[in-house]
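Q: What structure does this chain adopt?
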Amino acid sequence: MTLLEEVMEAHGGVERWRAVRAIRARVRSGGFLVRTRFPGNRLGDYELTVEMGEPAATMDPFPRDGQRGVFDRGRVRIETAAGGLVESRDDPRAAFSGLSGLRRNLRWDALDSAYFAGYAMWNYLTTPLLLTREGVTVRDGEPWREGAEEWRRLEVDFPDRLDTHSPHQTFHVDPQGLLRRHDYTAAVVGGWARAAHLLADHREVGGLTFPTRRWVRPRGPGNRVLPGPTLVWIELGELAVETG
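A:
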């Protein structure tokens, strides 16, 4: 059995994951990046729905009550609770580069934030099945010593067409096969944004296992986790898995 197969089994098994249509959760979030970049209610407390088959996520409410942010296969929009269009952006990632990206070094608008949070939460909640998608390549990396434990690592390369943090990412796996850390560079934030994303409090819902507490800290020399600041923290509750 490969390491990726072990990870899939530890999180519920590939067949269960492939039977899922959508995942819903109540999300609480905060941290330095959220406080300084996100407008409106800053996604402090919202309902999240992610689609398993296609890259899509809805955050409700955002950026204010009566509206929701929608990430939909690379595009992003803000709509009313009734589904009416407020504003949209067809190529939101490109807006973080070039002259238009200068403003985004200081502040993001609602569409910037909905894009970042939407693709990120879709990535997070569909992992580990995400790692089996067409075009994603996975190989075993060098082991990592974490306290008294030896964690194994998956080195993952993502295709350009997939909205994710960076082309190359590393996932750390504990002896039980659970994902415990996720390293990447948040490219839309900046090439300097080397992150160590820590995962804890794993919980089984609908036969699948999810980490329900996450926090992101800077990654320093030797890939060590720096003590602060906490760039983003995320708590998941009221998880529900929809099949069929």
